[in-house]
Amino acid sequence: MRLKFLALGLAMATTALLSACGGGSNNDSGNAQVRLLNVSPGYASLDLKETDAATLNGAVAFGSTGAYASLDLDTKGLYLAAAGSTTSLATPSTAGLTKDYSYTVVGWGASGALGTLTLDEQETAPDSGKSKVLILNLAAGAGTVDVYLNKVGVASLDEATVKAASIGTGRGDSYRTIDASAYRLRVTAAGNSSDVRLDVPSITLDSTKVYGVILVSSGSGNMVNAYVLPYKSSPTLFSNPTSNVRVISALPRSTTLSASLNGTSMFSGTASPAVSGYQNLVVTNGATLDWSVNGVAQPPKTITLSASSTYGMLVWGDPAAPTVTSLEEFSVLPITAGTAKVRVLHAAQGLGAASLVVNLSPKLSDIAAGTLSSATVLTGTEEVTVEVRADGQTLYSETRSFTSGASYTVYLIGTPGHYEALLLRDL
Hints:
Low-confidence stretches: 1-25
Distance between the termini: 37 Å
Structural class: mainly beta
Mean pLDDT: 89
Oligomer: single chain
């Protein structure tokens, strides 16, 4: 087994040092064959360029690869740019590349946070009847995940042929040699098999082939799609047909909520405030909330769903006349090392627009009741003072440090005269 990926790709993905700095010595002089795979949702089209601005792959659309092009390892480096631009967005390292070998440079991540990873496509092919697979988590919004490959017809995750556990963003599993066959691919939150982020009924892995199974962010929130890349060939997209939905109880403190989504219980007489786990739902069925507040049944609420998206069904307001608001939740997990993110969920009835202030500097404003704000970036290792204000009041103020790589939400709840704010770390 060649370990070139572990030296190049995994190191770049986990530390971003090689891809950020570039340079270094090569295994050999001469020319290597390189191409670009664009799986960054933040960039509809990317160029792969040499350091003299010559374009090797031009206008590579999201989800596509460019053609192999020759790179002079003696004199040239690489960088990625938006299509038609000469401004560098990322600099993949050429250290360790070998002449006459073929490589795929993978561009991934969100707009303004483009990451790179380089796959060595000279990985030794498996024997007849076998496939070799490498799993990569390049889904910036998903966080750490578990990945399962079961032979089609085997439903239990406990019987998975492959379980790649706790793969963080920008990380990969080692190459695995398995039977050439059709497999069901499932992705879940790390350590929580009920939190499903992707379920693909069947992908076919052929004999003597090497594959990269590349997870990328999709839609909103924490859902993922998968690209299956046969080395030296073109990727196939497997889109997510489901959505994740949770229930957020933001009623005044101690108000109880019972709720089920499409028949699955989320809360049973649970005191507010509370946040449920996610329920994975087929989008064609929508999401129907059956609910009661303080034991009083409320009219069911049904919302339509979009594939690969994440929703929160927010229960808030006066317990005597509560409201359900559907919120599409966009991923707020930080990508940059040493940072955290914070946002505001405004669920306080009768309270005007809220604002978020960090170290006395306004960050977010005009956050209306019944909405979830965007997120602002914090330095995760330093103490900062976070405040939420509305109607001339400071409803939340705390000086603290925030965990690097985590996201947080300040919840505003209550009714006139009984407002409250609390900070919770997101799931």
